[in-house]
Amino acid sequence: MAEKQIEQILRDLSELRFYIYKNVDKLQSTLEQSELTNKGALSSLEFRLDAILQANLDTFWLLMCSVLVFLMQAGFMCLESGLTRRKSSINVALKNLADFGIAVVTFWAFGFGLMYGASYSGLVGTKYFLFFTNVAGYQTYFVFQAMFVATAATIISGAVAERLKFFSYVIITFITSGIIYPLVGHWIWAFDFSNPDRKFGWLGKLGFIDFAGASVVHSVGGWVALSILLIVGPRTGRFRKDDAKGNKTFQGSNTPMAALGALILWFGWFGFNGGANLAMDIRIPLILINTFMAASAGLISSSIMGIIVMKKPEPMFMITGPIAGLVSITASCAFVSPANAIIIGAIAGILSGSFLVILEKLKIDDVVNAIPVHLICGIWGTLAIAIFGDIEKMGIEITRSQQLYIQLIGIVSIGAFCFFSSYSIFKIINYFYPLRVSKINEELGLNIAEHNASTDTHELLNVLGEQVESQDYTLRAPQDSFTETGLIGTQYNRMMNRLEQSEKQKNKWKNRVSNEIKLAMNVQKRLMPNRDLSNYPIFGLNIPAREISGDFYDFYLHNDQVYFTLSDVSGKGVNAGMVMAKAITLFKIFAKEKFKPNEILFEMNNDLNETNPPGIFITSIVGSYNLKTDIVELSNAGHQPAILRKGDNFTEFPSSSTPLAVIKQKSIDTYKLETFKLDGGRIYCFTDGFSECIDENNNEIGIEGVKNLLKKHKNNSLKKELENATEEIRLKSLKKDYKEEGLKKNGDILEDDLTIIGIGK
Fold this sequence. Notes:
Elements: H1 2-83, H2 86-116, E1 119-120, E2 124-125, H3 136-159, H4 166-189, E3 191-192, E4 195-199, H5 202-206, H6 214-232, H7 255-275, H8 284-310, H9 315-329, H10 338-362, H11 370-388, H12 391-394, H13 400-432, H14 439-444, H15 446-451, H16 456-470, H17 484-527, E5 538-543, E6 551-557, E7 561-569, H18 574-592, H19 597-611, E8 618-626, E9 631-637, E10 642-646, E11 649-653, E12 674-677, E13 682-686, H20 688-691, H21 702-712, H22 718-733, E14 754-759
Antiparallel strand pairs: 1-2, 3-4, 5-14, 6-7, 7-8, 8-9, 9-12, 10-11, 10-13, 13-14
Helix pairs in contact: 1-2, 1-3, 1-7, 2-3, 2-4, 3-4, 3-6, 4-6, 4-13, 6-11, 6-13, 7-8, 7-9, 8-9, 8-10, 9-10, 9-11, 10-11, 11-13, 17-18, 18-19
């Protein structure tokens, strides 16, 4: 019994062991199966998390790049404002502000749809108008592309600066960002959002490569800018015909600001090229390195070009050089080595500098050199990708020559479409609505003409202009110690304060001199004959050119004999008047003693020679007329010939010696004495104001003209004859449109003093 129980127990234990072994295997298999399932789930979850993280990282990167590209708008504003003249710098800044808003809204309304919508024959998009989506990826891409379209519009702004109406530029921005740019962008960049590798545009399908927009953005902006430049022409005075070099340099308002703009563009370009990758991956470092190296090479090569052309490090070459390098690397920055990037940038710097000179020769006025930098270097960059690009990185299965051919097709197609379409559109618009401002507004400056935005420079110029017109020297310029113009205004006001004080002192002296001149005039009048001479057959007239005459005449009367003299002191004014006063005094002294005319001249000469100021001399005629014998004695010292008229016949008595006070004479015989009878004739003596009078043919009338004048009035009394002849000469001798402050009545300023005397019944 006990044995049976033991056997039963052993059997039970054996079954239990078998059951345990059996279930352990099942449990182990279950556990192993469960472990495999959990590992797959974890791996799948990990993959999904990686994908979400990468997508978010790509989104963040693209948005950050969008911000950098937006910053480029500020760079363009600084660059263009700095390179334009101060009177239009505000206009340029406002255009850069306005075109961004206009371009983005226009791109949202229909530009994005034309560019990325479902394609019609590879030419134009047909959906995504009034673009709106909740898909973050689409939203991010729209933001990035909106920055690009604004850049294309801004390129035009700087090229055509200082001559376009503000609303003209609004129209240009609308058409460029809403039609021209989206269509070109569709040809190259349009793709299926559900399958990014599927291209829509005909150039994209053909294999045309433009990584970040050397053609799509920069060449488009350059072609449109060129067409407008040809329509509106250069700024007034930019290329002067009288300039041997054919150009006139317009100095920009602020070169340091322009340089700052170039640096901001350089910084923002990292977003421009880096964002075009559309993802944050291992290609980004190479893209950024190539961007930096190309810009640096462009700066160096363009600067060298400036030194070669201008013989110095010229600012325009240095400022535009790095931008040229940046434009050129835009198409290939993901596909070339840093060494090749340097070559591409260096060639771009040389091209931009060369075409800068070419545009000058072609008289195309591109203010910021947008054509050399964006158009020419954009074309070069588009070609460079086929020359230097890594075929494996580009993912192409054709040869370089084939790729170069495709790139050329794209360049020609884009150029033809952009230039001819924009030229046609804007030419038509210009016919009905002139794009350019008026010449007056251009000269005034677009800050004032277009925006009524005055500057301290304009206010300063207004004050200066008003002072010129009004001669009101109490006006003062605006002052500001924090601007260059304000500092100029401050110094100008200090100068005007000094000038005003000086003017007050000058006026005091002027009033004093004026009073003294008036006194001298009165003295001179008193020295001239002022007695009633109606009982004598003599008459004389003197009309001074200015207040004090250098001519003089005098009569000295004895009972039966009249002494007369007519003289001309060299020079005019007070100095001549003083010499004249002494000469009259000497004449009267010797006439009183009844000296012969030649004796009087002899004595006057030797006295004046000792006392006259250097360089002052006197031409003089002295004579006597005996009323009883009708005999005239006459002597001439360097003066116009005296003229004897009998009927229509004239006899001249020319000078026989040098003028008085030139040299001391030793003999009375130096002065020839003429003696003759009047026999009913008249003797005339006159100064050179008569004979040097200009006729209607712009010739001097000469002695013959004086004779003809006397013959014309011969039937009058002596007084009337001389008055009429003198008035005719006076009217001819008046200085036309001549303004001179003085004491003369009616402002009658003559070319020379007019003096004439006559003797005879």
